[in-house]
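Listing S7. Sequence submitted for prediction.
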Amino acid sequence: MTDRETLLAAFDAADVRTATTGKLSAPCVHVEPGDPWSVPVRLPGRVSRWRLTAIAGRADSEGAFATLGDLIDAVDIALRAVPGCELPTWAKPSDYSIDGVPYAATVSTVQLATT
């Protein structure tokens, strides 16, 4: 199983909706390669990085930040089940545009160590 498949399976098991393309429906987590994406640490180990964008409801709605907080908690719970994964630090919320409509979102990068 690839690192991406491992992360997606953990999110699926925790009932966290994900997207891997530009087609998504909030609330969800957009999973894409991070930067740098893959780095050798010691043979045969590697560290891969994945950018996670948690996307909640519309940016101007009252419950958007509460939804975003709940989504972050669910992501952290899911990641605790992934061996070699560090919990991410989330950036302050900002607007994320979906079809021209702003949604509350926050971005993080998660590291996954493999052997």
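Caption to Listing S7: primary sequence and predicted structure tokens for the chain studied. The chain has a mean pLDDT of 89. Residues 64-79 form the longest helix (16 residues).
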